[in-house]
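Hi U.,

Before I forget, here's the chain from the pilot set. I'm dumping it here mostly so it's searchable later in email.
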Amino acid sequence: MNAPVPSSVLLQAQTAQDTPAPERDLVAYVRQGQMPVSELVQHAEQLQQSGHLQAASNLYALWLAHHEDHRKHLIWFNHGSLLQQLGQLPQAQAAYEQAIALSPGFAQAHINLGLVLEKQGQSDQAIAAWARLTGQRYAHEPVAPDMLTTALNHIGRLHENNKNYRHALEALEHSLQVNPKQTGVIQHWVHIRQKACEWPVYKPLPGISKNDMVMATSPLAMLALTEDPLMQLLSSHAFVARTYGLREEWLCTVKQYHHGKKRIGFVSGDLREHAVGFLLPTMLKGIDRDAYEVYAYDFTVDDGTRHRRELLAMFDQVRPVHTLSDRQTAEQVLADEIDVLIDLHGLSAGARPGIFALHPAPKQGTYLGFIGTTGMPWFDFVITDKNALPPEHVEFFMEKPLYVEGSFIPLTPPDEELPVVTRADVGLPEGAFVMGAFGNVYKITPEMFAVWMRLLARIPDAVLWLIDDNPTTTENLKNHARVAQADLSRIVFSARTVHKEFCARLKLCDVYLDTYPYNCGSTTNDVIRAGVPLVTRYGRTMVSRMGLSILSSSRVVNLAAYDDSSYIKIVEDVRIIIENSNNFEYKFDSYGFINLNFNDENLGEK
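Structure:
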């Protein structure tokens, strides 16, 4: 949206006085105040095409200082666009403001002004800039529909980023009233409703059918909406088709290399303090370094933590690729002659599927980042286990399962360096039976929340402990609890905190309540490390069987429920154990070092 107005547009409005001048000293010519707009833009475009953006910007500035023209707002806009590209944001802001002052209805200038303000960290001002444009929808010369939806979508996006979900939903619903055929907007609207715990998630909207909403639902959102594996497959397939449009190429033309050690490459932007980053060290320790050499293709934004430094040190080779294009990264993989390339994103945020669509390695797979089928044809396998993805459910995956022993989620030893946290510190009653549930809020469904309300009603001294993720969601959950006639004093909300304190807080729980159909993953590992009983429910999807996978490897499968009634009974049984002062204990043969076997027979054709 920050592209300059091209000369072709301005030439359409060329006047008789716009005849190009012969070659002469350009600066002197501009200072005379006689250079036509069309000639100015042509000169500026030539400078841009030759890579001289600053010179083009300077040319615009010089012209603006010496000319008057009814199209001057367009030149201010072009000048702002170049300044924006050059990273000179305060100057770009001033240029866009000049364009708007000359032409208050100049929609593109309002859009770009908001983007520049956002880039400078001025969220409120950015939203105000877009709101001034949306406020013109009923003016004498109304805003073009595409500009109006663009402004509303930016407002919704920024409110979503700031977790102002109620305002985000309002903006997107207004956008969909203008144009209900915006699949991407429907997609975001659905997931924001999940994150806000606005139930039911699929709310009727004018001109949009429930089928439209289902088809627009993102794969991540679908994981938390249903335990129907076919729906998850269809959602992933539809998302990949409409989002990426990548053409497959086969850069790697060999079926296998013949290295002394097989080379395994991991591609990730989450090699940091992140759910994936916390689980990787144990998995990396489980790789036999006598048989395999391990590479990282890292595009992580460096968080400067000790965890990241130690994680990177576990790879034999680290290739920073954050400045490389997908093709350049794939060419690096090809040059390294990687035997097996593993994606750690799947369909999660930050994914770079363009690398894998180029097939730079003989075999390619996915692990951890997205716990479901990706719908991507360029993946040969998914790393999993037979509890998480039983053979009878494989038909709903495009990837062939590469099974590991135990759980595909590596269990890590307890952290001995945790801060001391008491119940009083977080507002928990000392003698209560504390039921913790700290999964991401979009994983909370009305059905699961109703089960938790039933537990509060059945266990008089129970307290439900939840994450205070954002004001909208917390208020909505309180309202849902009021409808269930629950005592709000028995529901405690705590703000998010750093990982070590989070792990320390977990020890204050008597039981941990897993979500369904999207189980906790990395958090479950933290619960096990804390020695807290995890009560989970499992279904037919891989993501709904993560808890079962971990509990089976810990030999406490009796904590896994197959329906709501058994879930409630297991929690009540845990309550009796606590009441009788019996200690609960997980049983491990050893902590989960996954033994990955990348033999060719395991990575055979799908």
